[in-house]
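Feature request, filed as a ticket because there's no other form

It would be nice if the structure record came with a short human-readable summary line next to the tokens. Right now we just get the raw output. Example of a typical job, pasted below so the devs can see what we mean:
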Amino acid sequence: MHAITIEQPGGPEALVWADVPDPVASEGEVLVEVVASAVNRADVLQRQGFYDPPPGASRYPGLECSGRITAIGPGVSGWSVGDEVCALLAGGGYAERVAVPAGQLLPVPDGLDLVTAAALPEVVTTVWSNVFMVAGLRPGETLLVHGGSSGIGTMAIQLGKAIGARVAVTAGGKEKLARCAELGADILIDYREQDFVEELRAATDGAGADVILDIVGAKYLARNLDALAVNGRLAIIGLQGGAKAEVNLGALLAKRAAITATSLRARPLEEKAAIVAAVREHVWPLVTTGRVRPVVHATYPMRDAAEAHRVMESSAHVGKLLLTTTT
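Raw output as currently delivered:
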């Protein structure tokens, strides 16, 4: 088969479409013929040499895919050859075929085409596990989403609104904020020109956000604590603004706040399966009825993954960037 390989870490040109050995479905796995995958920030970090796959995972980038099952490994039930699926991966999505643990499979939702389904698994599992399973966002609360125009952000806006929360977002520029508003965001903050702490306080009568979903990390830590409401929960899922920062424990205690930090890729299979099962139960009905939809910025042939990475690094996109195995 063909896959995107990384012989040496570097820029987008390090992504090379090459002949590689076919994967095999082992115990508890199925083999998926990939129709599409999607670009995530983690793929960029892997290409740069900063985020190696966990032990035993495919060395090829790609944390999600959609496609058709072509083989069933031992110990798998509930799936059949020919089923159209999308999947959460620890790696290997940038390829024509990939072996997937059965617990990380999802059926393609009714009303969604197979290519677009590739935009769902990583963002939906990330948002649902952090905002709802860990941070426990409830109807009537305020959710602040940093990077509201990203793939994660566009999904977080929709899921927050679907459960009855008030959603605030930060994004760069009027066009991106307008797209966030179209998805239902209530409070729009241009981080280039506005202080999100001040804007959020003004919009919430000084209360702040009950839950903050943060992709920035160290750079925003102190200000995120300022922006939290009493009993607020800060969920950190990215480190685009650095990994090390001091925490004012006095502020944390005064607000009775909580900070959590999670990633999906290296979690045990049973934890990923539990998250995927929760997504299928709670989110898939919203996708099927059209209340929640992936936002796709552009689609590229997988062999041109380098160009998709350039767009990702430029931050010019809104929503997801997809890669397809057919030209």
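Something like this underneath would help us a lot:
The CA atoms of residues 104 and 276 lie 6 Å apart.
The first strand starts at residue 2 and ends at 6.
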